[in-house]
Write a structure and sequence with these properties.
heterodimer, A: alpha/beta, Mannitol-specific EII, Chain A, five-stranded mixed beta sheet, 34% helix, 21% strand, globular, B: alpha/beta, Rossmann fold, four-stranded parallel beta sheet, 22% strand, transferase (chain B)
């Protein structure tokens, strides 16, 4: 049975500080562990995965990263979003050592392989719209980001009203 | 023309290959090409090495394969996606 996708302000970070990709990933994944959305093993798994298969994406003026790892570490499907205080270098997906200064991190905790196509397509659609990425990168509050992404990712149906 | 076997791979086989897989499916449909798409983790490519005609991947590959390898990052970023589509089409039509 596919779980619902969890997404609210508690998995959104504004002005996240971290001088390395690893630090950023540690902070974000530890939060998911604390929230009970992923197993403890998610943290080392996502770090290892990023070292082996980097996820930095050159998406115009607002580069992003989409760290993710195998489904077995996930309890409930979710997406965690971080606006980085200062750009942090991530290795570019498909490259050996070329890096890109990432401003937004979308950490994916997926609980089933291959089954979240619509969700992922909508996410990639966002990556192709620089204006939306800019809005997120310049956002002043988490609720704005939540609402924007809920709309763009079509998550509203999963939620029970506003907070 | 024999049906082409196309491997679609990313590191974990969860996120990016799912999107790329669907993009190639669409591409093949638009051009009436019959392809067999196999979505895998990059670590599993070896299993299909004897059978595959093409590897489309978002992951880095240091290894040499007996078939062409096309980087599919553009399907995620939109940058250069038309060029990637053309390269894939060329291989599928061979």
């Amino acid at each position: 049975m596919m779980s619902k996708l969890f997404f609210d302000e508690s998995v959104i970070f504004l002005n996240l500080e971290g001088d390395t990709a690893e630090k950023v990933l540690r902070i974000m994944s530890a939060n998911l562990v604390e929230k009970g959305l992923v197993k403890k093993s998610f943290i080392p798994a996502i770090l290892k995965r990023e070292r082996e298969f980097a996820t930095g994406l050159p998406t115009g003026s607002v580069p992003v990263a989409i760290p993710h790892t195998d489904v077995e570490h996930v309890k409930q499907k979710s997406i965690s979003v971080a606006v980085l205080k200062n750009p942090v270098d991530f290795v570019v997906m498909g490259e050996e050592s070329k890096t890109i200064a990432v401003r937004l991190v979308f950490m994916l905790a997926m609980d089933e392989a291959h089954s979240q196509l619509t969700f992922l397509q909508k996410l990639m659609q966002i990556f192709q719209e620089e204006e939306i990425l800019k809005k997120i990168a310049e956002a002043k509050d988490k609720t704005f980001i939540r609402r924007l992404l809920e709309e763009k990712l079509n998550l509203v149906a999963f939620k029970g009203g506003d907070k | 023309m024999a049906k082409k076997i196309v491997l679609v791979a990313c590191g974990a086989g969860i996120a990016t290959s799912t999107v790329v897989n669907s993009a190639i499916e669409q591409l093949a449909r638009d051009h009436n090409l019959d392809v067999d798409l196999i979505q895998i983790k990059i670590a599993e490519v070896g299993v299909y090495e004897d059978r595959a005609d093409l590897l489309v991947t978002t992951a880095m590959t240091k290894k040499e394969y007996p078939f062409p390898v096309i980087n599919a990052r553009s399907f995620l970023t939109g940058v250069g996606v038309e060029e990637t589509r053309q390269r894939i089409l060329e291989e599928l039509k061979k």
